[in-house]
């Protein structure tokens, strides 16, 4: 079983219009606090991100925020976090999140959430890390995305091995269990650090 003490969560800076998503963020925050998992996230006090961070903190958990300097505005950044890291740019932000985390979870969100999810899963596919990546499919939010990935497999653009790298569940409890049992595939022999 993999030990997950710090998990990075990608999620929306908006709350959206589905109460089930807000409730899932609250459940996730409570699970993190109960299991003594530190939340790593984008440091915002707004949207699903803000709900998640507030819940972890309200339940005496730890939260580390990572935000680029240009987004560090009083109305956006959460100033009550356990730790706050400021980076020069978005790329450095993602590298810092990766370095701090034992695994990753995507909750519902928009373009930024998808961009972060697909970059980190591409890094796993390339063998740049061996950390589990979970997708919390709240109320069918990611159903169409999963269908698209299945189409990629059928059309020969995505192998089943790489499709299976993304761990999917509808509850945070089950998703965390899948992540703890995750075993990364062997790194391809052709991939060397100097080629990345």
Tell me about this structure.
It catalyses: AMP + H2O = D-ribose 5-phosphate + adenine. One of its GO terms (cellular component) is cytosol. Its EC number is 3.2.2.n1. Keywords: Cytokinin biosynthesis, Hydrolase. One of its GO terms (molecular function) is AMP nucleosidase activity. It is a single chain. It is built from seven helices and seven strands. The model has no long low-confidence stretch (mean pLDDT 93). It has a single domain (6-181), classed as 3-Layer(aba) Sandwich (Rossmann fold). The chain is globular and about 45 Å long. The chain has 196 residues and is α/β, with parallel strands linked by helices. Strands 4-3-2-1-5-6-7 form a seven-stranded parallel beta sheet, sandwiched between helices. Helix 1 (19-34) runs parallel beside helix 2 (47-58).
Descriptive tags:
Rossmann fold; 196 residues; 7-stranded parallel beta sheet; alpha/beta; Cytokinin riboside 5'-monophosphate phosphoribohydrolase; cytokinin biosynthesis; globular; single chain; AMP nucleosidase activity; EC 3.2.2.n1; LOG_fam; 7 strands
Quick take:
With about 200 residues, the chain is of the alpha/beta class. The chain has helices at about 20-35, 45-60, 90-100, 110-125, 145-155, 160-165, 170-180, and strands at about 5-10, 40, 65-70, 85, 105, 135, 165-170.
Write out the strand line-up for the largest beta sheet, numbering strands in chain order.
4-3-2-1-5-6-7
Helix percentage range: 40-55%
Shape descriptor reads: globular
Distance between the termini: 29 Å
- Would you give the CATH topology? Rossmann fold
Series of H and E elements: EHEHEEHEHEHHEH
Rg, alpha carbons: 16 Å
Low-pLDDT runs: none
Our estimate of the beta-strand percent is 15-25%
Task: Supply the CATH class.
Answer: Alpha Beta
Oligomeric category: single chain
The major beta sheet can be summarized as:
7 strands, parallel
Number of domains: 1
Number of strands: 7
Mean pLDDT: 93
Briefly note the structural class of the backbone: alpha/beta
CATH architecture: 3-Layer(aba) Sandwich
Note the total helix count: 7
